[in-house]
Write a structure and sequence with these properties.
By secondary structure, the chain is α+β, with helices and mostly antiparallel strands. About 20% of the residues lie in helices and about 15% in strands. Strands 1-2-3-5-4 form a 5-stranded antiparallel sheet, with helices on one face. The protein binds guanosine-5'-monophosphate (5GP) and zinc ion.
């Protein structure tokens, strides 16, 4: 409960949530996404930021990243998920404005090395797609197991 909600229910809850704000500050020295320089950030809010992928799958491939160092999607707190969701929507709008050739997107998180994760700081891929960019796009993210993409 926040201060206001707790007061409204007559202060019956004595949990101290002030430590939560400290948790959001957690960074790791040797993590590339904890040390992104400000000039590479294309969008930002209080808990998350967006950068262009250095090795884009398609033009405007963007990464949405929580500021707190957490390994994967399932470690996120709900406010971080909300912050990332807002950035996903903002970035999608901006990208579509810049590039009208975009006709679709793949949105995805790799969770764990076995699922393909290479940077162990949570991030969501926003990958623009264009009509004809592959011969047969059917199945999309099912393509993580290439032989099962088309069904
Ligand atoms: P993962 O494989 O962990 O899901 O995705 C890591 C992503 O980070 C890859 O798409 C890769 O191209 C991108 N990447 C790796 N190193 C850097 C970097 O130094 N800067 C940026 N902007 N992207 C990076
Ligand atoms: Zn990190």
């Amino acid at each position: 409960l926040c201060y206001s909600c707790n007061a409204m229910k007559s202060d019956r809850d004595d949990t101290d949530f002030r430590q939560m704000n400290n948790a959001y500050e957690h960074r790791e020295n040797d993590c590339i996404f904890c040390n992104v320089s400000g000039d590479r950030i294309i969008a930002e809010n209080e808990l998350a930021f967006a950068i262009k992928d250095a090795f884009p799958v398609t033009d405007h491939h963007t990464l949405i990243i929580p500021k707190r160092h957490v390994e994967d999607y399932f470690d996120l707190y709900q406010p971080e998920r909300n912050a990332m969701q807002r950035l996903l929507e903002e970035c999608r709008q901006e990208i579509c404005k810049k590039d009208p050739s975009i006709t679709g997107f793949n949105i995805g998180n790799n969770v764990g090395e076995d699922a393909g994760q290479t940077v162990m700081h949570c991030h969501t891929h926003l990958i623009p797609r264009r009509e004809g960019d592959v011969d047969n796009p059917r199945g999309g993210v099912r393509g993580v197991i290439a032989s099962k993409q088309n069904y």
